[in-house]
Amino acid sequence: QVELAESGGGSVQAGGSLRLACVASGTIAGSTCMAWVRQAPGKGLEQVSSINYLSQYTYYADSVKGRFTISRDNAKNTLYLQMNNLKTEDTAVYYCALGWAGTDRRGQGTQVTVSS
After folding, report:
1. Is 27 a residue whose pLDDT tops 80?
2. What is the DSSP letter of 11?
3. Dihedral sign from CA coordinates of 97, 99, 103, 104
């Protein structure tokens, strides 16, 4: 059973950057896609970005295109999300998850707060 642990969240001012990391304990199957999803206060889960196992394909929500970059290091069982030019509307709890849509197993999440 795979457990996911996110880190790297924090508080930044608008325009700043953060890099989230998610370490998976256990073995991830070779075909497993991974994703970052987020939940802002009072809102539902939003798929932010996804990546396939070999990093050939990626997905970004329109709201983060050009600002966020997803990557993974399969040797380290680690998923990353580089977030640049952060906006106040990026404030949310960010979760890494198994599966392209991020609907499979999720971690506990890491809080990202962006102030103006």
Report:
1. no
2. E
3. negative
